[in-house]
Design a protein that fits this description.
Length: 463
C-alpha cells in the first residue's frame, strides 16, 4: 500500500530487534515544517479545547548528521520512557551534490493504524511541490550547521578544540597554546621498522595534507566537474600493539594538524540518538578547523561491523553517519579519517569500499623485533638482541615494550632487596639478557589464544 502512494524510491526493512524501518528520499522541494505538522496532526491526540491542533509528546535533536524527532501520543507515556515505543523520525541532510534528503521512520514492534496513516500522508506531502517556496515568499530549507554552507561563523581554533575535548575526544598534536602540549616522543624514529608502512602513510596522507593545492590543481585540469582527488579515508589494519595509533599521531604531528582521537566509549553512548549526534559533531568541528585535521576512529570494527551480522541498531546508525560524512566531506577542507581495526574481516563492506588505502600492520618479523628491542634495551649487545628477538616471536611492538618494562622492574626490585650485585662503580647495574628472556617466557605463558594473529602474513599488504 505504501509503495502505491509513493512516486519515489521507498525501502522497508524489518530488523532483527523487531524494528521496522521505512525510508525514502525526500525531494528538495519538500517543505519540512509542513511535513512535521502533518505528522503530528496524524499521530497526536486531538486537543479537546479550541477545536484545532493535536497533542503529542515530541523530543527533538539536531545534529550535523541528522535531525531526529520522536513522537509519542501523550497517553502512552505512563512508563516515563519517552521514546521506547514512539515513532522515531530521522531526517538526513542531502549529501553534497544530491537534491534529496533522506527520511527514515523507525518503529519498534508494528506500526499502528494511525502511524501508517501518518506515513502515507507524509509520503504525499514529501511529493508535493513547496508552493510557498516556489512563489518566492518563504525560504524553504534554512541553512544548517555543517551542511556545506561556508558563510557561517567559524569559531576559533581554541573553541573548537575545547568543544571536542568536552565531548571526550582527545586532541593530539596541537601547539603550546593548547592545554595538550606537543609530545616530543611522537616521531617516526621511535617506531622501529615498518618502513614500507611509513612510506605508504606519507605518500597517501601526509603529502595531501601538506600540499593540497597540488592535488586540487591536477583535479581541476583533469575533471569536467571539479571534485577533490585527495584521500579522505585510510584504514590501518593489524593486531593490537603494532603501532597503528602511534603512526596516526606521527602523521598528525608532521602535517601540523590536530589528531582527533575518538575513543570507543565516547561513541558507544547508551542514549538513543546520542552516538550519531556526537560523531556528527566531531566531523562538523573537524571541518571547521582552519588547517584541517585527522579524525582517528580506533577499534572501528566495534561500531561498523557488517550489516548482515546481528548488529545493534546503534551500530547501524553510527555506520551510516560515518559513511555519509566520508562521502560528504567538504571539498575545500583538509580532513582525513583514519580508522583502525584488528578485525578487518568484520567490517561492513560499504565502509571498506570508502577507504582510499588499506595499510596493514602485521606482527614484526625477527629483524623488526630486534630493532624494537634495541629501542627499549639499548645496553644489550647485537647477539643478545638476536637472542631476545627469538624469545619474542609472535609478539607485537607493545608486547616487546611491556616485556622490557617488566624486566626493568624485576631487576630494580632485585637490586633493592640486595639479591643482585651493583656494578663495579657501586651504581645500580642494568638488567642482563637472561632477565629479558625470562620475562618474555613469563608473558607468553599468560597469553590468551593468539592463533588469529599468527596465521596471518606479517608482510605489508596494500589495497
Ligand atoms: N615498531 C615499534 N617500535 C617501537 N615501539 C612500538 C612499535 N610498535 C608498537 N610500539 C609500542 O607499543 C605502543 C602501542 O602501540 P600502538 O600504536 O598503540 O599500537 P596499536 O594502535 O596498533 O594497538 C607504542 O606506544 C609503542 O610504545
Ligand atoms: Mg591503537
Amino acid at each position: 500500500m505504501l509503495k502505491q502512494v509513493c512516486s519515489f524510491e521507498l525501502s522497508i526493512e524489518c530488523q532483527y530487534n523487531y524494528q521496522v524501518v521505512v525510508k525514502f528520499d525526500m525531494p528538495s522541494t519538500c517543505n519540512v515544517s509542513h511535513l512535521i505538522v502533518d505528522l503530528v496532526t496524524h499521530i497526536g491526540l486531538e486537543a479537546e479545547q479550541h477545536g484545532g491542533g493535536s497533542e503529542v509528546l515530541v523530543r527533538a535533536w539536531d545534529s550535523p548528521a541528522a535531525r531526529q524527532i520522536t513522537l509519542n501520543p501523550p497517553k502512552k507515556n505512563s512508563t516515563g520512557d519517552l521514546y521506547e515505543d514512539g515513532l522515531c523520525i530521522l531526517i538526513f541532510e542531502p549529501l553534497i551534490g544530491s537534491d534529496y534528503s533522506e527520511i527514515e521512520f523507525i518503529k519498534r514492534g508494528s506500526f499502528s493504524l494511525k502511524e501508517l496513516e501518518a506515513l502515507i500522508s507524509a509520503l504525499k506531502v514529501a511529493g508535493e511541490k513547496d508552493v510557498k517556496g516556489s512563489s518566492g515568499k518563504g525560504k524553504k530549507n534554512t541553512p544548517r550547521k555543517g551542511s556545506g554552507q561556508r558563510s557561517k561563523h567559524i569559531p576559533s581554533m581554541e573553541k573548537i578544540i575545547s568543544d571536542l575535548e568536552a565531548m571526550g575526544v582527545r586532541v593530539y598534536g596541537f601547539d603550546e597554546t593548547s592545554s595538550i602540549p606537543m609530545d616530543g616522543t611522537v616521531i617516526w624514529e621511535n617506531l622501529a621498522g615498518y618502513e614500507p608502512q611509513k612510506r605508504e602513510i606519507e605518500d597517501t596522507i601526509l603529502l595531501a595534507l601538506q600540499s593540497p593545492e597540488v592535488y586540487d590543481d591536477i583535479a581541476r585540469g583533469t575533471r569536467c566537474k571539479f571534485e577533490t582527488n585527495r584521500p579522505r579515508a585510510v584504514l590501518f589494519e593489524g593486531p593490537p600493539g603494532t603501532g597503528k595509533t602511534s603512526s596516526a599521531r606521527v602523521i598528525a604531528k608532521q602535517a601540523g594538524v590536530p589528531l582527533l582521537y575518538v575513543p570507543l566509549e565516547v561513541v558507544m553512548s547508551k542514549y538513543y540518538g546520542e552516538s550519531e549526534r556526537l560523531l556528527g559533531s566531531v566531523f562538523s568541528l573537524a571541518n571547521d578547523l582552519p588547517d584541517g585535521g585527522i579524525i582517528f576512529l580506533d577499534e572501528v570494527d566495534s561500531f561498523a561491523s557488517a550489516r548482515d551480522s546481528e548488529m545493534h541498531e546503534v551500530t547501524r546508525r553510527i555506520l551510516s553517519v560515518i559513511l555519509r560524512q566520508i562521502d560528504g566531506f567538504e571539498q575545500d577542507r583538509r580532513v582525513v579519517v583514519i580508522a583502525a581495526t584488528n578485525r578487518k574481516e568484520d567490517l561492513d563492506p560499504a565502509l571498506i569500499s570508502r577507504f582510499d588505502s588499506i595499510i596493514c600492520f602485521g606482527l614484526p618479523d625477527q629483524q623488526t623485533r630486534m630493532e624494537i628491542a634495541a629501542q627499549y634495551a639499548k645496553h644489550l649487545t647485537k647477539s643478545e638482541l638476536l637472542q631476545f628477538s627469538s624469545a619474542t616471536e609472535e609478539m607485537s611492538g607493545r608486547d616487546i615494550r611491556d616485556v622490557c618494562q617488566q624486566a626493568e622492574r624485576h631487576w630494580a626490585s632485585k637490586l633493592i632487596r640486595g639479591q643482585v650485585p651493583k656494578d663495579e662503580k657501586g651504581e645500580p647495574s642494568l638488567p642482563p639478557i637472561d632477565e629479558y628472556v625470562s620475562c618474555a617466557e613469563q608473558r607468553r605463558k599468560s597469553w590468551p589464544d593468539r592463533t588469529r594473529w599468527t596465521s596471518r602474513s606479517p608482510a605489508l599488504k596494500l589495497a
